[in-house]
Amino acid sequence: MRSWIRRHWRWALPAGVVLAGVGAWLVFGFFAFQTYFQDDEVDEALPFFTAGPAPSGIEGDETTEEMAEAMNDAMADDDMPMVEEVDEPMPDMPGPVTSQVPEPGVEAPEPAAPAESAPADPQDEPDVGEPTEETQPAQTQPAETQPAETQPQPAEPQIIVEASGSFIDRSHPTEGSALVLGDGSGQRFLRFEDFRTDNGPDLNVYLSAAPPGAPAGEFDNDFVDLGDLKGNVGSQNYEIPVGLDLDHYSTVAIWCVRFGVVFGVAELT
Predict the structure, then answer these.
(1) Helix (H, G, I), strand (E, B), or coil: what is residue 3?
(2) Which CATH architecture has domain 160-267?
(3) Rounded CA separation 154/184 (Å)
(4) Residue 255: phi, psi to the nearest 5?
(5) Which residues are 182's β-sheet partners?
(6) Does an H or E element contain 161, and which?
(7) pLDDT digits (tens, 9 = 90+) for 67-109
(8) Helix (H) or strand (E) holding 133
(9) What value does the mean pLDDT take over residues 232-252?
(10) Which of 41, 50, 83, 161 has the CB geometry, 3.0–4.6 Å to 233, for a possible disulfide?
(11) Which range, 25-29, 108-112, 218-222, has the best average confidence (pLDDT)?
(12) Domain map (residue ranges) of the chain
């Protein structure tokens, strides 16, 4: 063997380097054995709900960071200033009209003579000393003040647990609780508490239609992917698509995409 290597060392050495590189990639890249010996720990607070109705009662449109950046870019392309100051003076207010002045060269109209009034009948004149119904001052009743009606303030949305379940082992030890949190607006989050499982490559969080005891191959037949597992230890939140039927997708699965195995599951009830 040594004599063969001595005779063919010129191409045997590069081949050995290539084989060593492939082996290292298989160990650390594909199989990712190093992940089994380290934990990715997270500790997220309760989720923040943003899908509630607008204060005016009209459904509001949510503005994302991407939309804000796009609007800023469009304003920059059109050379529009981000801040445009306006400083207008007070408007000229016309004064009150006191009299009508005739234009120069135009004679002012003569005032009209007062109309002659018929002499008053002495019998119709009331005695000065005796007040009549017309001369008696009207007695005014004090107006009753009504208490101002206060509009009831809308109650702040309360976060409630709509469904929950406990994790059980499948191919790896898994423990903790899975909670579905909602505030009545339609926005919901899946939250893990006291969660722990083994670490591994390409772990995702699935909401699957397969029951907890189904074969591993059924969990990725009908499912909704909530994203990469944020950590194999600790509390974490995942937003659930609005309107998703959790009676159908009632199983939370920690799914290894690379090897097609399920680490642990929790049934939501």
Answers:
(1) helix
(2) Sandwich (2.60)
(3) 13
(4) -110, 130
(5) 160, 188
(6) strand 160-169
(7) 667 777 777 776 666 555 656 676 666 655 554 555 555 555 5
(8) none
(9) 98
(10) 41
(11) 218-222
(12) 2-30, 160-267
201 is written with which tokens? 């490559």
Neighbours of 251 (CB within 10 A): 24
DSSP three-state, residue 265: strand
Residue-wise pLDDT for 24-64, tens only, equals 555 555 455 555 668 999 999 999 998 554 343 434 445 56
Buried b (16+ CB within 10 A) or exposed e, 21-45: eeeeeeeeeeeeeebeeeeeeeeee
**pTM of the predicted model as reported, rounded to 2 decimal places:** 0.54
Nearest-CA neighbor of 62 among 161, 184, 185?
185
Amino acid code (one letter) for 103: E
Rg of the chain (C-alpha set): 42
Q: Which two tokens stand for residue 214?
A: 């189904």
Tokens 């207008």 correspond to what residue?
88
CA–CA distances in Å: residue 234 to residues 9, 173, 237: 53, 15, 10
> How far from chain centre, in Å, is Cα 4?
70
CB atoms under 10 Å from CB of 52, counted, come to 15
Q: In the chain, what percentage of residues exceed pLDDT 70?
A: 51
Digit-coded pLDDT (tens) for 195-210: 999 999 999 999 999 9
Count other Cβ atoms within 10 Å, centred on residue 124.
6
Dig out the tokens for 90 from the structure. 């007070």
Coil, strand or helix: which one is 187? coil
DSSP collapsed to 3 states, 11-57:
HHHHHHHHHHHHHHHHHHHHCCHHHHHCCCECCCCCCCCCCCCCCCC
